[in-house]
Amino acid sequence: MDVIVRPYVGDDLAACRRLWAELTQQHRDLYDDPQIGGDDPGQYLDATYLVMDGLLGPWVAERDGYVIGLTGVLVHGAHGEIEPVVVAERHRSHGVGTALLTRAVDEARAGGVHRLTVRPVARNIQALALFVREGFTTLGQIDLTRDLTGTSEDRWKPGVTLHGHERRY
Prior knowledge:
With about 170 residues, the chain is an alpha+beta fold. The chain has one domain (about 5-140): Aminopeptidase (3-Layer(aba) Sandwich), CATH 3.40.630. The chain has helices at about 15-30, 45, 95-110, 125-135, and strands spanning about 5, 55-65, 65-75, 80-85, 115-120, 160, 165-169. Strands 1-2-3-4-5 form a 5-stranded mixed sheet. The chain has a two-stranded antiparallel sheet with strand order 6-7. Strand 3 (about 65-75) and strand 4 (about 80-85) form a beta hairpin.
């Protein structure tokens, strides 16, 4: 069966909390940091995300009656940020992320957004590839991080050069 992208409804909360927790675990694994997201990362969804000012959507991807993806757009005037794009691991690389992005872009355009951004974590190569394929090819802003613990410099990988400066990610 095809993927259906539809508006989020209250009955989707448990499935979306699981998706959020899965996304958090992926970030923990990518950065070898079990602290990311706190003790109950799923609670961020309803305690913070779903009540954010300027939230357009959110929308869920559904296949065979099961919620397998989530996205939304945070709107700030004429600028919007797609946040998050999360797809259940076993459904990745099957067009679900593309379907969610298409819905988010169409809704943002219809809502008067002129510039739309995504901010994947630097190590999520699969997400970066998806966003580039879907037309997100302009660097608009870069977040630079400074590790203040002094104990985890070895966690950061070398390999990104920008304007002649080697950066870790």
